[in-house]
Amino acid sequence: MLILPLHKPLTLATWPWMTTLLLLANVIVFFGAQSGDTRAMGQAQRYYLDSGLAEQEMPAYRQYLLDSGRGDEVQALDDEDEDAQWGQLATAAVNDLGFRARLAQHAPGEDEDAQARWRPLRAEFDRRLDAIFTLRHMQRGSEWSPHRMLTAAFLHADPMHLIGNMLFLVALGLLLEGAIGPGWLLGVYVVGAYGSAAASVLWRWGEYGGGLGASGAIAAMMGAFCAVWGRQPVRFFYWFWVVFNYVRAPAILLFPLWLGWEVFNLLSQDDARVAFEAHAGGLVTGALMGALLVWTKQTRPAFLLDTPAVVVDDRWARAQRHLGRMENTEAESLLAELAAEQPQSFDVALARCRLARNAGQTQFLRERALTLLRLPATNAAQVQAQWGLAQTLPGDGVALPADVRSVLASQWIALGHLQEAERLLSLEGEGGPRDAQAQLWLKLALAHGARQSGDQQRLLAHLLQAFPDQPQATKARFLLDNL
């Protein structure tokens, strides 16, 4: 489910400067400080396995799980293949703080020599981990760290994670920063980062792992937006499965939808590797903060009341839906409006042609077909659409005028669609003045010659045979003699 408020246009007057700074901070951290972390992490884990450190620590890890009352995880570990076992151990060696604390207290190994061999290997591994920016600043499971709870809100796992969060940051920041100001917007982001992180730590206490991303802080912005805008109707876009549209509704109604969706996913997708509990915690934190700002009159009524809705022309999308449902009358009404406003729109003209054919409206098909065929094609898809229409018109009882045929052939030759142009010139029917036809065949032959195509000789021979009395035949004979 996607719900995205799109209520005000982004202009210089409404530009959310603090939101922009937050966006830049996230982007700079990801493409700057985090840029080498994936490679460094891979190298560290490879060192862990190749150095023999993993082999030394595996018995200690199994014992740690048993002592922690996690015997079921030992059984699950035994059920995995060898590569999966080493992979799980390598992950635990990085993220399981309890296991790392156990190693710090009790060096693995049956004797002093084994422990002495272990210590420099582990020290080197820890050194490699400490050099990874993301690991130094991400939130860690079962740990209260004010520093990490904040810095994790500026980290991201991959580009798509960053892009998705920044899309919501900009959409919400535009509406929330204008309503409460840049200072309070920053406050919501920071407090939301702590609130969402606290919810995640509490919900997953006892689990090892880590969390990162701006989504918790942005969820707080979502909650604050709902509280600050309250009963004010706002325009938003929603997308649920295959259903999508723009609607207007009071902002406060979005809060139970957002929160309910996160709680539903939290309870039904525990293994999704998404911190739904952090999103829910951020929403609640932001809503409480937004309510406090409203109560203390920290909002900007002028911005909230001056709410011109973003005008979105959805007539084309609605016309497509009507066409799909065979609702021809409704589709034609919308397409006629669009055709009047956009007489050069190829897509609109093509849709009106198809509608007339599907509805059996032969009286309108000729007029609309000629309108489409007189429009200049700009790409291969449009040429194919015109060619498909031109060759089927006779079957619909519609003759293709000679002037239209000539213009189409000339345009297609210029675009390099030579096969379609030849097929068009070869169609039965009135081809127009013979000199004009001969000129088009010569132009087609010359276009093939420019491509060094073997079809040039064939086309010149056809020109000589079909139009021997035209001046172009003389040129064709000269070209043939010199090929």
Automatic annotation (TrEMBL):
UniProt subcellular location: Membrane
Membrane topology (UniProt): Multi-pass membrane protein
Transmembrane segments: 12-33, 166-191, 211-229, 236-258, 278-295
Superkingdom of the organism of origin: Bacteria
Gene Ontology molecular function: any one: serine-type endopeptidase activity
InterPro entries per record: Peptidase_S54_rhomboid_dom, Rhomboid-like_sf, Rhomboid_protease_S54
Pfam families on file: Rhomboid
Matches recorded under Gene3D superfamilies: Rhomboid-like
Signal peptide limits: none
Segments forming domain Peptidase S54 rhomboid: 145-294
Keywords carried by this UniProt record: Hydrolase, Membrane, Transmembrane, Transmembrane helix
A GO cellular-component term linked to this record: membrane
PANTHER family from the UniProt entry: PRESENILIN-ASSOCIATED RHOMBOID-LIKE PROTEIN, MITOCHONDRIAL (PTHR43731:SF14), RHOMBOID PROTEASE (PTHR43731)
Similarity comment text for this entry: Belongs to the peptidase S54 family.
Name the UniProt record assigns to this protein: Rhomboid family protein
